[in-house]
Amino acid sequence: MSERDPRGSFRDYGRRRPVVGGVEARSRRGAFARNWWGRAFVDAVEAVGDAGRLSRGRTYARSGQVVALDITPGLIRAEVQGSQIQPFTASVSVRPLTTDEIEELSATVRRQPGALATLAGGTVPENLAPLLLPDGAAAFDFDCTCPDDGWPCKHAAAIVYLAAERIDIDPLLVLTLRGVRLDALMDAVGGGGPGSDEDWYGESTRLPRLPGVEFSAAIEDLDPLLLRGALRTVDPDGREVERTIAELADLYRRLR
Fold first, then answer.
1. Does residue 186 sit within a domain?
2. Which of 115, 108, 106 lies closest to 206 in space, CA to CA?
3. What residues have CB less than 8 Å from 125, skipping those under 6 apart?
4. Which position has the higher pLDDT, 83 or 14?
5. Residue 175 domain-assigned?
6. Phi and psi for 221 in degrees, rounded to 5?
7. What does the pLDDT look like over 126-135, one tens digit per residue?
8. CB under 8 Å to 108, separation ≥6 — which residues?
9. Do residues 6 and 49 share a domain?
10. Global pTM?
11. Residue 5 — pLDDT band, cuts 50, 70, 90?
């Protein structure tokens, strides 16, 4: 993050600008994640981050200041509206698993293939949690284009909480963050070969109930940064970008 401006405090920058069509937090108060794996993700960041900035990050998340959020291997990236005209670009890096760690994970699912079915069904098996969920300061890094050099700043903190909500709904995103391909784990399950007394194919495994599917507008599945970039090619000043995104989101909700 860039250095703090020595000429004044952050109060000099003014209040945050309101956002139309920002990412909506599921949580209005209390914990941001409902399931234990989502809470574990939040707890890991709160154990190493600045408490004051994390608190302001929760406020930013709930007030819709995050206008775009994208989760890719090893990285959570977002645009977050602060007090300036243009949003800040904030990111949370999550350390990918090493080759040895991926091999250990593959060996675990070979021994217990039902764990992979449970994960695909929308629940993180507890025996996979120590291998998948990031923990400790070394697992995270934070960056932002704002002037605050905090670790994390409130903008990066805001996207942590919203990302935790997405992981809470779709735990397969943990695989994405840790740089693990689901098909590679599936190949590991099928690699036991005949003659083994293990249930490699999970034929005797009792699958969990299918999770309830919450509505998500199609616009939320797009790469938000690419969408905003495309809109800015026809609206360089960015004056109509937020209104256009809000209108698109409303149209998708009507198609529900």
1. yes
2. 115
3. 112, 115, 118, 119
4. 83
5. no
6. -90, -5
7. 888 889 999 8
8. 115, 127, 128, 131
9. yes
10. 0.68
11. very low
**What's the mean pLDDT when you consider all of the chain?**
82
H helices of the chain, where?
Answer: 36-46, 51-62, 99-111, 114-120, 129-132, 154-169, 172-177, 182-189, 224-234, 241-254
Q: Are residues 224 and 246 in the same domain?
A: yes
**Res 33: pLDDT:** 87
Tell me, yes or no, whether 64 and 140 share the same domain.
Answer: yes
Looking at the DSSP bridge assignments, the partners of residue 80 are 66, 88
Share of the chain above pLDDT 90, in %: 38
Same domain, yes or no, for 146 and 163? yes
* DSSP per-residue string spanning 164-227: HHHHHH-THHHHHHTT--HHHHHHHHTTS-TT-SS-TT-TT--PPPPPPPPP--GGGGS-HHHH
Domain co-membership, 25 together with 49: yes
Q: Which range of residues forms the domain containing residue 2?
A: 1-91+134-170
Gap between the Cα atoms of 162 and 66, Å rounded: 9
Give me the amino acid identity at 118. Answer: T
Residue-wise pLDDT tens digits, 219-231: 666 677 787 888 8
Closest CA relative to residue 58, chosen from 134, 150, 165, 140: 165
| pLDDT score recorded for residue 209 | 74
3-state secondary structure of 247: helix
| Residue with the larger pLDDT of the pair 87 and 236 | 87
Which positions ≥6 away from 199 have C-beta within 8 Å? 113, 114, 205
